[in-house]
Design a protein that fits this description.
The chain is α+β, with helices and mostly antiparallel strands. It has a single domain, classed as Clam (outer membrane lipoprotein receptor (LolB), chain A). The protein is built from ten helices and twelve strands. The protein has a twelve-stranded mixed beta sheet.
Length: about 290
């Protein structure tokens, strides 16, 4: 597999997997009622309810992903009142060692495995992106310091379309898909549930960066994926772990955890006035 194919496969798998946890927290309202009701639910229903009953309070979700045992991604998202801000680091520099590339192969790719950082802020009418990656010098030369790239939501654009433009996904939609697709859910300890994602399911194909049937092409899998969900004392989603089947020599594990609820994060648009249309960036430097 070429380094380009490797990187594309890693992006598709990692970003899609992160989606399960990134809208995974909400309000503390109704905790006692939810706890009482949860006792009457099946394991499958309890896991679904843990997402559905999250409410609209503010939260922080912290996620980390390993690739073949190496720390690869850290991701933090804060959310309040329909606004959210995310900060992610992708440690591309570990890929040569993690995937067994030779020194010659890694050297040939040059800056292709430069670590990257992305900030994203979503307000009621705009999504803002800021990138720090192998194109940083080019971004500064073209747009100046502290440049942010924007997508206007008032023109009818859907979040799913915006995320698709930036290589991400509609987090809320993806979360619902994964929870709905879980099968064989059982409670293995108090408040801890395990379930599996069928390799032929639509959501699993998205997770593995493939829309074809399982085993049809590189990147597909014939193995079920195990998901472990832990609920908090109010039976709301607290922690989640996904262990993906090894594919093309890549084994990924994601752990996401709600670390705060009910904090005022004061999420606002960037203070910078150096704003540019994301499509302009995508058609130029972003296409390099």
């Amino acid at each position: 597999m070429s380094a380009f194919t490797l990187r594309r496969s890693v992006i598709a798998t990692a970003v899609s997997t992160l989606a399960l946890g990134l809208t995974a927290c909400g309000g503390e309202e109704g905790g006692d009622e939810q706890g009482a009701a949860a006792a009457d639910l099946s394991p499958q229903e309890a896991v679904a309810a843990s997402v559905e009953n999250l409410g609209e309070a503010s939260y922080k979700m912290e996620s980390s992903m390993t690739l073949n045992g190496f720390d690869f991604i850290t991701f933090t998202e804060t959310y309040e009142d329909g606004l959210h801000r995310s900060s992610s680091d992708m440690l591309w520099s570990i890929i040569p060692e993690a995937t067994g590339l030779t020194e010659e192969e890694a050297a040939y790719m040059g800056d292709f495995f430069t670590d990257s950082h992305t900030e994203t802020i979503t307000t009621e009418d705009t999504v803002y992106f800021q990138f720090t990656d192998e194109n940083l010098d080019a971004i500064i030369a073209e747009y100046g310091e502290d440049a942010w790239f924007t997508v206007d939501l008032t023109d009818g654009s859907e979040f799913s379309e915006v995320y698709a433009q930036s290589g991400a996904v509609d987090l809320s939609e993806q979360t619902d898909k994964i929870v709905s697709a879980l099968t064989d859910v059982e409670e293995t300890a108090e408040g801890v549930y395990t379930g599996t994602l069928d390799p032929d399911s639509e959501v699993m194909q998205e997770l593995m960066g493939s829309t074809a049937g399982a085993g049809a092409e590189a990147g597909a899998t014939t193995e079920a994926t195990e998901v472990t969900v832990t609920l908090d004392e109010n039976d709301l989603l607290k922690k989640m772990e996904i262990v993906l089947p090894e594919t093309d020599g890549m084994a990924m594990t994601l752990v996401s955890e709600v670390t705060e609820i009910g904090v005022d994060y004061g999420i606002t648009a960037p203070e910078s006035t150096n704003l540019h249309d994301y499509e302009e960036y995508q058609a130029g430097i972003g296409a390099l």
